[in-house]
Amino acid sequence: MKPAAFTYHRAHDVTDAVGLLTDLAAAGEDPKLIAGGQSLMPMMNFRLARPSALVDLGPLRRMPSMTALDAEAGTLTLGALVTHHAVETATLPDGFAVLARAMRWVGHLPIRSRGTVAGSLVHGDATAEWCLLALLLDAVVVTEGPSGRREIPADELFHGFYATAVEPDEVVVEVRFTRPAPHAALSEFARRHGDFAIVDAAVALDLDGDVTPEQVSGGRVVLGGVAPAPVRVPEAEAVLAAGGAPGPELFAAVADAAAAAIDPPNDPQVTAAYRRRLTRTLVADACAQAAGGPR
Question: How far apart are the first and last CA of the chain?
Fold first, then answer.
């Protein structure tokens, strides 16, 4: 299929992009930004999205800040146009290495080579790997709009099905990950490699290194595909906070708590019961990987 008719505009810098969005909206248009286009264009081709104007951010790739990967003082900052593949092939600090490992789940190489981190977050797919990782590592999305810059914490970013707190006249300029997680993993299940996940799970374990053998003293559990937006699971995190030796018994308890806490949707192809079973399996798997098991 082909997309509905639209006008095409190229932004020369962030200010120009914001100005184009503002002017087009004032003229009665429905503009959308396009960076890698790996999410927006398929939706346009299927007429699921019908913007009347596109503002291309491609020229902004010449701006070093938009493609930078900077690690400093326990924070990893990614420019808005950093691609999935750039993260996949980067040498990241231990606390953020889970980002690179998780990229193997993102589509296929051509998609990872063009799709951007910020684009995935703004798209707001409940199963998108970046959306789970944002909640896992306390990401902060920095935007620029007519009123200047603002910062959106990950726990305020996702509003529901493909809906985020980023305003239509704002441009994401960077994404900061502020919570290092050296013991973290993401696991997911899709019918075929590269398909959208049915359910995915991201886990970060807090391990007490002063105890021999190491003990789990807390952590985070984030799920995708079980609600309109990615969610943390406090019930599963409470099991981790209670502590214990990392191993199958503890991880099964975390997985059971996560599966019991959710109310996943039914749809014509996947039942709620199946999503719950997947949740149990994937959380246990992600816990084992985060603790140093098979990857």
Answer: 39
